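Researcher: Next sequence.
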Amino acid sequence: MLFAVMAHDKPGALEIRKANRASHLEYIKSSGVVRQAGPFLNKDGEMCGSLLILEVGTLEDAENWAEKDPYALAGLFESVSVQSWNRVIST
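Model: Next structure:
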């Protein structure tokens, strides 16, 4: 199943994001469950959150993955939501 992880950074946390980016990207690569990923950008073009599409068995699996993300462990996020997602269009 596919799940969307939508995370929004705490205000003023860009340096936390930058400091943990390499670990976050390694976690994405090594987990083998991320099908799409990228940062949200604010009006100034700076990273301010994340959108990830995971392919895992259950909502609980997706939530567990999100909780172990190095960004989450570093306290970057103000909020995180995980929701099942149905891909309709793929290019």
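Model: The radius of gyration is 13 Å. The chain has one domain: 2-84.
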